[in-house]
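re the bet — no i am not wrong, look at it urself. input seq straight from the record:
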Amino acid sequence: MSTHNQTARLAGFLYLLLIVSGIFSLMVVPSKLMAWDSAAQTFDNITNSLLLFKLGIVGGIFTFLSFLALALVLYKLLSPVNKTYAGIMLVLVLVSIPISFVNMLHKFSVLTLLGRPEYLSNLDTIQLQNEMMLHLEYYYNGIQLSEIFWGLWLLPFGYLVYKSGFLPKLLGTFLMVGCFGYLIDFLGEFLYPFYSKTAFSDFVSIPGTIGEFGICLWLLIMGTTKINWPKKSNS
């Protein structure tokens, strides 16, 4: 197996880890614990399933570390296609990582509120629930901010895939379109309170989902086997 093919397979494996851990921490755990219209219900869910909440934090940390490792491996794989665009892709990911880790502190603050006897004794139940929900709101506001970079990095990544000559152009197109899907989602959530309840909010994320799942599976299963590696590209 060639070095390029090994790098591609590693990128696919890291992408799969990123997707699985991201789905667990950003979708599965919140669906079990969060009730945004009821602070009391959310408080009870978290206190009764504290291990699941902690596993969600671990999953989030694993997601961000996988994202960092993926970007570094993809830079190695795709920089021969166009070093400038590969560098932009890497920088966008590197900017998002500290934002994501700092944002995770809000979940640790929830653990502090629930685990320190002095808070439990000095705050009444409603105050404690409201303080917890405030930190969770801060956390999900931070996730929305991170989505900007989760979208932006797909534009140079998709371009590199499209121009590579050893990865499918169609997947590169889906990735580039997916960039704008993330940005539209951010603006919609930020500017329009009922955006998430519209059919458009589901539709706009489809190209990015196809592109990311598709390139993950392609890299993992196909690698670069049977595809000619480009010697040089200045485009």
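see?? The chain has one domain: 3-222. told u. also Residues 226-230 have pLDDT under 50 and may be disordered. so pay up
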